[in-house]
Specification:
Blueprint lengths: L1 H9 L8 E7 L5 E7 L6 E6 L10 H6 L4 E6 L17 H15 L2 H4 L2 E6 L1 H12 L4 E7 L6 H12 L7 H7 L4 E2 L2 H8 L10 H10 L1 E3 L5 E3 L3 H8 L6 H7 L3 E6 L5 H13 L3 E5 L6 H4 L1 H12 L3
Parallel strand pairs: 3-4, 3-5, 5-6, 6-10, 10-11
Antiparallel strand pairs: 1-2, 2-4, 7-9, 8-9
Helix pairs in contact: 3-5, 5-11, 7-10
């Protein structure tokens, strides 16, 4: 599927002239795949991770808005956009973060070139935080975009729902697991998704990159999401073990951008995290949880403002 996936995203009218693909085999027995904006003499090195159900390619418009001399890598979360995972296993947030950290360390040559800036949205934000906490030398600082921070009480509730198998009966699981994930062609896919609430306000370029990079042409010639609905639903039904230990151990400067209409449990978790660790600073920004895809130019501008401050 990987060759088909990358053929799909490169054979489009979208601007991929400075983008190359990469893959890194990990000790976890699977590969992490991603994209890299090639820069000759980089002034800054940045790593980005997308949210659940999206893809590395979805963030290309944001990368193109960053300074031209910034060396930018984007990883596909395992189970997304060509990155492989074990479909038979339940999502383990720590293992996912460790796999991403290992691939970042090798692909970006952290041992010789030093730590990088980490940027993550939603689920990718939490994975970035966990990776930074468990690998203090990996990032120089991180910027998290409305990360899915679950309070300890909510994690305990998720644990019992998971252990009792009730998670398969929740409205969220049913909605995601039963979502349409195949279309006859890219045009049909676009027409269908642009009418959905989640994607309705996406920037046009972001939407085009999402359509081409978060799907592939299957053996039947259909457009199919690269992140299966079952895997996406499993992530929504999972919980982060030891998240608050990671928050407590986090030792680098961390900026969290929280949306005006963020999920209530996200806001509660983020506010608690800032009280637990003085390295974490909160910043109100954006209208909804998907602000990086809805307001890419404004998002990048704000990130640059944050990073300009020591």
């Amino acid at each position: 599927m990987l060759d088909i996936y990358y053929k799909c995203i490169m054979n489009t009218s979208l601007d991929f002239t400075d983008i190359e693909t990469w893959q890194q085999e990990t000790s976890f027995g699977h590969n992490i795949h991603g994209l890299h904006r090639k820069v000759a003499n980089p002034e800054q090195r940045v790593h980005l991770i997308h949210g659940t159900g999206f893809s590395a390619g979805t963030l290309i418009p944001l990368v193109h808005l960053m300074p031209e001399n910034w060396d930018c890598y984007i990883s596909n979360i395992p189970g997304h956009g060509g990155s492989t995972w074990f479909d038979c296993r339940m999502p383990d947030w720590l293992a996912l973060a460790d796999a991403l950290a290992e691939s970042i360390r090798i692909e970006m040559d952290v041992a010789n070139k030093g730590p990088v800036i980490g940027i993550g949205h939603s689920f990718g934000g939490v994975l970035t935080l966990i990776a930074a906490s468990r690998n203090p030398d990996l990032f120089s600082r991180i910027v998290l975009l409305d990360p899915i921070m679950l309070k300890r009480s909510m994690s305990i509730m998720q644990y019992f729902i998971r252990a009792s198998h009730l998670w398969k009966y929740t409205s969220t699981f049913k909605a995601v697991n039963n979502r349409k994930y195949k279309w006859q062609n890219i045009g049909e896919m676009k027409l269908d998704l642009t009418n959905k609430t989640l994607y309705r306000n996406f920037d046009s370029q972001v939407m085009e990159h999402f359509l081409h990079s978060a799907s592939y042409i299957n053996d039947q010639g259909e457009r199919e999401l690269s992140c299966s609905p079952r895997w996406e639903a499993s992530i929504f039904g999972s919980f982060p073990k030891s998240l608050w230990k990671s928050v407590k151990k986090l030792s680098i400067k961390t900026d969290i951008m929280i949306a005006e209409k963020s999920f209530f449990f996200v806001r509660q978790g983020i506010e608690k995290a800032s009280k637990k660790n003085k390295s974490i600073q909160l910043h109100e920004f954006g209208r909804s949880h998907c602000f990086p895809m809805e307001e890419p130019a404004e998002t990048v501008e704000y990130i640059l403002q944050l990073l300009s401050k020591a």
